[in-house]
């Protein structure tokens, strides 16, 4: 594979560790996309209420940032590779517990969400830092672009394969099969991690210093505020849209097809966006992508059918690359120019994660209050229309960020790919 990539990208120096990190990222993406979308449906079929699903996702978004802080301290004192393995091991434990608990999973929704959140926290802290350390300024565009392709490929193949497996088997057998495959993929990712070169860290974990940096660095403050609104949209869109697709079609295969269209278009447009969106056009692209994401909601808000959902999938499949490519790049640049970026890169990643998940938690708490007080069918469209503006709000923070100094490119923060960014 390394020789093939060298042939395709002659000007890019592809190291062994870079290739291994791509493989681990690909296995992670396939494992998550194969099963995690269907965990929400699995819990819905057992409970039949939004509160169970919301509590499961709330646990993820509470434990993920908390684990980031713990993982940051470990990464500073021990080894990034150890943190990566812990993440993949916890993800494996999550799927193993889903298999063991089986038809009573809805009763353990918060526990399962906690395990998944811990897995995400360890995995993404280590993956973000390793991405910075393993890649160089001249290989980062290649790495992020190729990883985006692998993630989109996983998003295309995973859900449609899972939907097909569930549709041809009895329900519980199908679900157990896809959860088992995901478990094995994560075990394989652990094995791959043993071939990475060990990377020990130095220094103290200065979380508060980087958190307080937002009072001194206006660009950092605006970036963090943008990430809160990113989280507000992501908080409920994942599970609500997933459940709506399932309730509309009564078919896991149809849900897989929905994700196939979504990820397939993202697969294409990540290539296009990387080539077309130049640094001078980043802010305009963020605005266009944010507008597309917001107005896409109205395709499904007043009348919902499978075809309305497919049109919605097409729009957001195009919109996410348009906004994410420049948004992530601007985030890299802001962090790269921040004080002590090289020494405190882990802390910057942890603080960013804290603010994204703050937005997610706020959205889910408001959702839980809303569906407790009002009928779900009445309040959910209102919440989607309100929280759906989250990505549009990103523009109003990022438009005032000005980076005039040469970029140090000291830090890279990979946009996390779990299911939450796909709706």
Mind explaining what this structure looks like?
The longest helix has 32 residues. It contains 16 helices and no strands. It is globular and about 50 Å long. Helix 2 runs antiparallel to helix 5, helix 4 runs antiparallel to helix 7 and helix 9 packs across helix 14. With 423 residues, the chain is mainly alpha-helical. 54% of the residues are buried.
**Gyration radius from CA atoms, angstroms:** 20 Å
Beta-strand share of residues: under 5%
Query: Low-confidence parts lasting 5 or more residues at pLDDT below 50?
Result: 406-413
Give the count of helical stretches. 16
Shape: globular
By DSSP, the count of extended strands is 0
Give the N-to-C terminal Cα separation. Answer: 32 Å
Helix content: over 70%
Q: What's the order of the H and E elements?
A: HHHHHHHHHHHHHHHH
Mean pLDDT: 84
| Structural class category | mainly alpha
What about the largest sheet?
Answer: none
